Amino acid sequence: MVKPILMNFPMPITSENLIIRPPEIGDGVIINAAVLETYDELEKIMPWAKSKPTVEDSEEFVRQSAANWILKNNDEPYLPLFIFDKKDKKFLGGTGYHHMNWMVPAMEIGYWLRTSAQHKGIMTEAVNALTRYAFLELKLKRLEIRCDASNAKSKKIPERL
Q1: Is the bond preceding residue 47 a cis peptide, omega within 30 degrees?
Q2: Distance, CA of 78 to CA of 100 (rounded, Å)
Q3: Contact 44/50 with Cβ under 8 angstroms?
Q4: What is the pLDDT of residues 104-126, one digit of tens each?
Q5: Least enclosed by CB within 10 Å: which of 67, 103, 130, 154?
Q6: Whole-angstrom Cα distance, residue 38 to residue 59?
C-alpha cells in the first residue's frame, strides 16, 4: 500500500470569475448533465469518455474523487477539480491535478469545458489560476498540460498563457 501524502491543498481556488474546487458528494447530477451536454466532443478527445454515464456513474466518480482528495491518491481519478461560475454557481467544466511526482515536485493538468461555456475565455482563466496555484501554493517546479494533439482549442490555452 502506498502511503498517502499528508498535505493540505487550501481550497477553493478562485479567480476573477471562477470558483474551482474538489468534488463534493451530491455533485453527480450537475456533472452528469454537463458531460451529456458535451459528450459528442468528449468522446473524441477524452480517454474516460467511452460511454454516456448515468447519474449514478457520475456520483460514483464524484465519491471516488472526494476520497482521492482526502488521501491525495495518485490513481484514477487522481485529483479532479470542478469549475463553477462565481456569479451564478453554474458548473462549467472539469480539470484537475494528475500524475503527481513529489520528488520533483511536478504534476499534470488536463481540462474540459461544457459546450455552452466554450469560447468565452473561461478555461484560459481557469488554467491560469490552476497554474499560479500549483507554483505558488504547492511549490511545484514543473506543471505539464496534457491535451489530445488534434484538439486545437485545448492546445491554444497554454500557448496564450
Answers
A1: no
A2: 9
A3: no
A4: 999 999 999 999 999 999 999 99
A5: 103
A6: 18
Query: How does DSSP classify residue 156?
Result: H
C-alpha distance from residue 157 to each of 59, 79, 147 (Å): 29, 21, 10
Q: Fill in the amino acid letter for 141.
A: K
Give the type of residue at 143.
L
Q: Cβ contacts of residue 107 below 8 Å, gap of 6+?
A: 97, 98, 99, 100, 101, 134, 138, 140, 142, 143, 144
Give the C-alpha separation, 59 to 79, whole Å.
Answer: 15
Cell digits for 40? 459528442
Detail the DSSP E strand segments found in the chain.
Answer: 13-14, 18-21, 79-85, 91-101, 106-113, 142-145
* Spatial contact of 2 and 32, defined as CB atoms under 8 Å apart: no
Residue 32 C-alpha cell reads as 452528469
Q: Residue holding cell 500557448? A: 159
Q: Are 23 and 36 in contact (CB under 8 A)?
A: no
